[in-house]
Amino acid sequence: MEKLVGGEKLVGTDKPARHALPDPDFWRGRKVLLTGHTGFKGAWLLHWLEAMGADVTGCSLPPEQPAALFPLLHSDNRLAGEIADIRDAHELNNLVERARPDIVFHLAAQSLVRRGYADPGSTFATNVAGTNNLLQALAEVGTARAIVVTTTDKVYRNSGDGHRFRETDPLGGHDPYSASKAACEMVVAGWRGRFEAAGCGVATARAGNVIGGGDWAEDRLFPDAIRAWSRGEAIAVRRPLATRPWQHVLEPLRGYLVLAERLASGAALAPAYNFGPTEDSATVRDVLALAASHFDGAGIDWAESPDGPAEAEALALDPSLAASDLAVSGLWGLEQTVSLTARWYRALLNGGAARNLCEADCNAYVEAASGADR
């Protein structure tokens, strides 16, 4: 993974490079706490951090899916001592005390809208109380110099008019998941002053809809499609005209890494950043039509009317603040993002190694960012 560890240096500069990449010199040997490291995004981020030489401690529940990405990329041995429930304050305190991290990425969450409807109590307990537990433990240990808490593009009060949300727009939530993530933002705001007084930068990161190889969660578009098509079945689509700010998983992860570097440097930054595509949001129909072109006989059953609990029909982000403050903006358009994701799954189903596939995507992404700056 030699290409993956190249990047622009940001620490100590007033303005980052035009297309910033994480600096491997910053991360080499750095003590990092990564919650949610067994999840889809967490496994990718752990892979990137360790490629740059970071000393990462994970904190997560065991992988949910039999085909989860984490065990394909990381040895089962690294789970020892890293399985913890953020709802258990005592258990979490012990893990944070052992880790004594310098940088923290908080990704652990209940992240599914429909599961939020089915189990709102657990959703709020994880996303709100769990975040508070983590911040309290970090405050007591006092070693952190940068904390990035990931929430979602769904934290905004959505009237359905399709406008691009900016970080200063009102927060809200019309379903338990969205509301729990908006409440998570409030928890972070309540702790921010204490951390900043101790010299620790804190920010939330609101990412658009993420796709990429290795996601097998239920009720997510690409995993559901791959499961159906691999069985020779059609995928049933509930809301084909719903629009979302789709992006490859590496796009927001790059943002999280650069944001953490800047926070640790003491830079004056906003309390929250959107990470999403520079192009307009696309419909579910658009994404699936592109994906289906990569699979022979891929069937799609379009619903005539929405099925299931209510979800926002239109969602879009304005990522311009991350572009101006962090030099982080989308590199891969929708067609390339879908193509790379489809090829990843096809290669895995044909016997390819997940680690090799992830490394290839990571290296291609770093090359794209480096080339865009020339």
CATH topology: Rossmann fold
Succession of helices and strands: HEHEHHEHHEEHEEHEEEHEEHEEHHH
- Our measurement of the CA-to-CA distance between the termini, rounded to an integer number of angstroms, reads 22 Å
Uncertain segments are 5-16
Task: Describe the structure in brief.
The chain is an alpha/beta fold and 374 residues long. Helices cover 42% and strands 13% of the residues. It has a single domain, classed as Rossmann fold (3-Layer(aba) Sandwich), CATH 3.40.50.
Task: Give a structural overview.
Its EC number is 4.2.1.45. With 374 residues, the protein is of the alpha/beta class. The protein has a single domain, classed as 3-Layer(aba) Sandwich (Rossmann fold). 42% of the residues lie in helices and 13% in strands. It has 13 helices and 14 strands. It has helices at 24-27, 40-51, 69-73, 89-99, 113-118, 120-141, 176-197, 221-230, 250-264, 284-292, 320-326, 334-349, 354-372, and strands at 31-35, 55-59, 103-106, 146-150, 164-165, 201-207, 210-211, 234-237, 243-244, 247-248, 272-275, 282-283, 299-302, 316-317. The chain has a 6-stranded parallel beta sheet with strand order 2-1-3-4-6-11, with helices on both faces. A two-stranded parallel sheet has the order 5-14. A two-stranded parallel ribbon has the order 7-10. Strand 1, helix 2 and strand 2 form a beta-alpha-beta unit. The protein is globular and about 55 Å long.
SSE topology:
Blueprint: H1 24-27, E1 31-35, H2 40-51, E2 55-59, H3 69-73, H4 89-99, E3 103-106, H5 113-118, H6 120-141, E4 146-150, E5 164-165, H7 176-197, E6 201-207, E7 210-211, H8 221-230, E8 234-237, E9 243-244, E10 247-248, H9 250-264, E11 272-275, E12 282-283, H10 284-292, E13 299-302, E14 316-317, H11 320-326, H12 334-349, H13 354-372
Parallel strand pairs: 1-2, 1-3, 3-4, 4-6, 5-14, 6-11, 7-10, 8-13
Antiparallel strand pairs: 9-12
